[in-house]
């Protein structure tokens, strides 16, 4: 006997209930199921803080990726076989590579076990070894391409290719930002790393507002740490009038084309670019810090206001 199903009942039973999960996900993305104040904030600004799926324990996350650092076999990854087969070339490592390689060479550093965990650390990091029980060392990470630039991409985006968003873009997309006057995702880097460059902080297929902002801290002036931060032709009042006009025109167009997410991102980007002219300079101007704070950076590392 055939029965009539409502659209809600069809979604609930479709694919053993997977349809309802998909619908809930769509509602969540559009803040339909969120509290009224949260839904209003997210609809107005894509960078508004978003409630996490569970109560977080970490208050801050600092990701330091030091490209070109020392080898893992000289720091936290003890390889006793390198000592056992020193000077030899077993068949397992006798492979064709891009560059000529030589026989196995053991680490020049001595390794010892530290802490209750027995973490093996080389003599190169004796002070860090004192914090062994506070560290989590992952030795299982690997990549399919042993070249430098694809390895950097893998570390910053999880892919060897340049078409995936960086981890920072994903975090900003999922959690939002508490400061709406500065980028929620910045990349502190002296110059540009290797041949990869902007791909390391790229938003890829995510909306443009989630792209990372490159901060070149080699520049000594607080207003030069970001490219084109300061408008040399217009006053702040003229810029505000210009941004307001562009925003009004874009919003008229967006009202007729509500599905153009790229346009909404552009509107938000222009607003943030205007606010950043003052906020960014203040954030990177270390001359406003106390002498005690400046001393913590170390002698010789404080140059004309910037690190």
Kindly summarize this structure in a few lines.
The chain has helices spanning 7-13, 18-29, 36-44, 80-84, 126-129, 148-157, 167-175, 236-256, 261-284, 291-296, and strands at residues 111-114, 119-122, 186-188, 213-215.
List the defining traits of the structure above:
10 helices, two-stranded antiparallel sheet, elongated, 307 residues, two-stranded parallel ribbon
Fold and architecture overview:
The N and C termini lie far apart (76 Å). Helix 1 crosses helix 2 and helix 8 packs antiparallel against helix 9. The protein is built from ten helices and four strands, in the order H-H-H-H-E-E-H-H-H-E-E-H-H-H. Strand 1 and strand 2 form a beta hairpin. The protein is 35% helix and 5% strand. The chain has a two-stranded antiparallel sheet with strand order 1-2. The chain has a two-stranded parallel sheet with strand order 3-4. It is mainly alpha-helical. The radius of gyration is 26 Å and the shape is elongated. It has helices spanning 7-13, 18-29, 36-44, 80-84, 126-129, 148-157, 167-175, 236-256, 261-284, 291-296, and strands at residues 111-114, 119-122, 186-188, 213-215.
């Amino acid at each position: 006997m055939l029965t009539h199903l409502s659209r809600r009942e069809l979604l609930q039973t479709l694919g053993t209930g997977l349809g309802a999960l998909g619908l809930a996900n769509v509602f969540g993305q559009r803040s339909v199921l969120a509290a009224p104040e949260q839904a209003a904030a997210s609809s107005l600004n894509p960078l508004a803080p978003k409630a996490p799926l569970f109560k977080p324990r970490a208050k801050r996350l600092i990701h330091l990726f030091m490209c070109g650092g020392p080898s893992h076999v000289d720091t936290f990854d003890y390889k006793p076989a390198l000592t056992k087969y020193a000077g030899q070339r077993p068949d397992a490592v006798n492979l064709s590579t891009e560059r000529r390689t030589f026989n196995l060479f053991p680490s020049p550093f001595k390794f010892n076990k530290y802490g209750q965990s027995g973490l093996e650390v080389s003599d190169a990091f004796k002070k860090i070894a004192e914090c062994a029980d506070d560290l989590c060392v992952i030795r299982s990470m690997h990549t399919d391409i042993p070249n430098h630039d694809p390895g950097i991409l893998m570390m910053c985006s999880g892919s060897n290719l340049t078409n995936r968003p960086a981890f920072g873009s994903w975090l900003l997309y999922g959690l939002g930002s508490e400061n709406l006057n500065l980028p929620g995702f910045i990349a502190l880097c002296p110059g540009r790393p290797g041949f990869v460059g902007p791909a390391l902080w790229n938003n890829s297929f995510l909306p443009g507002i989630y792209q990372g902002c490159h901060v070149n801290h080699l520049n000594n002036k607080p207003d030069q740490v970001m490219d084109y931060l300061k408008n040399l032709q217009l006053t702040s009042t003229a810029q505000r009038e210009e941004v307001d006009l562009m925003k009004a025109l874009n919003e008229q167009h967006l009202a007729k084309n509500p599905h153009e997410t790229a346009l909404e991102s552009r509107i938000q980007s222009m607003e943030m670019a205007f606010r950043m002219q003052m906020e960014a300079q203040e954030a990177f101007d270390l001359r406003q810090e106390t002498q005690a704070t400046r001393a913590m950076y170390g002698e010789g590392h404080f140059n004309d206001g910037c690190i």
